Amino acid sequence: MYTKSNKEIYRFKTFFDQDVEKEVDVEKEVEVEKEVEVEKTRKNKETGESEKYTTTVVKKSKEKQIVKETRTESERKEYTFVIMQPTRRQMEEADMEYSIEMSRCVKEGILTKAMLLNKYSDTGGIMSEAEAKELSEMYGRLSELQTDFTSWKLAKEQKFNDKQKAVVEEIASLRRVIAKTETNFSALLNHTADNKAQTRVIGWYLLSLSYMENKDGELEPFFKGDDYESKKDYLYQLEEEENDLLALVYEKLTAFVSFWYFSVNASQEDFEALEKDIVEGNM
Predict the structure, then answer these.
(1) Amino acid 147: pLDDT
(2) How far apart are CA 131 and CA 121, in angstroms?
(3) CA triplet 229, 234, 239: central angle to 5 degrees?
(4) Could you count the other beta carbons within 10 Å of the beta carbon of residue 101?
(5) H or E, element range at 218
(6) Every domain of the chain and the residues it spans
(7) What is the pTM of this model?
């Protein structure tokens, strides 16, 4: 079995009632044919007298037998899912995905949040000048930190130094504060370049970090594929096939990855509370 370690963000179990066909033994009364000996009478051609003789005939009768029948039964199966901690390489790749998507959106004329907030601070609107300025500054600071992060060239076994750890923690803290601030202005900010890039990077983490235990207790990627695009194609395939297991766990996987992305040092208890809210329909 896989041993839980600090390489995991969170693991959870889910139960799936699945219809399966099984062969079962059933006692039934069945009709069978048997050869039996019977005594008959006939006339002897030479003597003209009646004589008895024995012959074999096939007769039908009913008897109880154990027979195999295929029946559909509901079977509860347990599945264990794990959100893995990203490696440094994965964090760099995800941040690059964010930057690429931001650039693509800007080229297509989609405003960034900073651009939109500057516009509102100049012209007035649903957000005050002070609010718009503060949020714009946070976006600018987050952009600077993410640029620093992607510029690091870390060897495979190299660990973050104290300065780099502080940058990672500040990025997470800014994401959390920004997310809370944006709640009141979600309709305005939903279609910005930042939001589209953020949605893409959360999707990238979802497809890359979601694992499931196989029947041998070993972890394997839930979304099959060698890269982001192939994993995304596999997700689309599952959706088109209306895969029951995906429908059961997709909301949880997305919620856990998003919670991790916007949180700072979320504890096991925090994730358990989130899972309870999902199960009870409080989200």
Answers:
(1) 75
(2) 8
(3) 125
(4) 19
(5) none
(6) 8-14+77-279, 28-74
(7) 0.64
